[in-house]
């Protein structure tokens, strides 16, 4: 059975000295950051990879609490542009939380109070230190520590990063969870339809879809669906 490409981390990520928040979150949950960047806007992406959101939130929370060091970057623009004072325009008139700073040449800029979480970065050593304090193992950051821990909300049998992960078992469970109202078709037909639309995620062949649909089918007595 082919491995889920989301969890096939490019080894060259190991050469990086620091990571963005999004990259760090992906690596913590055992996913390749490039895959996440490319596919996270796909339909149902978050449903199949639920660990990313809480991992990102944990990183931001730790940085804000000063428990995780980070290089914070802020969006900035010149204070004076085309006769407009952006500090007054944004801070006084629009009520934004902005601050004036000066560069080495004395030029004035207006920056936002909230960091740009897309461009801010965390050094790899700081990430390892923080993860160690939280007693959180991660294959990428601690390759000798074993498997990454899946978030508590994700059962082991649905965690693709678990060494005993069985795609057909996960497919059967998630199909059973998804198909709650088959409507005018039989439960098995509805399950088959769902599995066909998600076959790439679980690497299912036509025979595999048939096998999984049989396992997940709760109406084994046959007959027409109840109206």
Give a quick precis of the structure:
The chain has 227 residues and is α+β, with helices and mostly antiparallel strands. The chain folds into three domains: 5-70 and 118-152, no CATH class; 76-112, no CATH class; 167-216. It has helices spanning 21-28, 33-39, 45-48, 52-64, 86-93, 124-133, 167-178, 187-197, 199-202, 206-216, and strands spanning 18-20, 76-78, 80-81, 84-85, 98-102, 108-112, 121-123.
Question: What can you see in these coordinates?
Answer:
It is a single chain. The protein is an alpha+beta fold. The model has no long low-confidence stretch (mean pLDDT 82). The strands form three sheets. Strands 2-6-5 form a three-stranded antiparallel sheet, with helices on one face. Strands 1-7 form a two-stranded antiparallel sheet. The chain has a two-stranded antiparallel ribbon with strand order 3-4. Helix 8 (187-197) crosses helix 10 (206-216). The protein folds into three domains: 5-70 and 118-152, no CATH class; 76-112, no CATH class; 167-216. The protein is built from ten helices and seven strands.
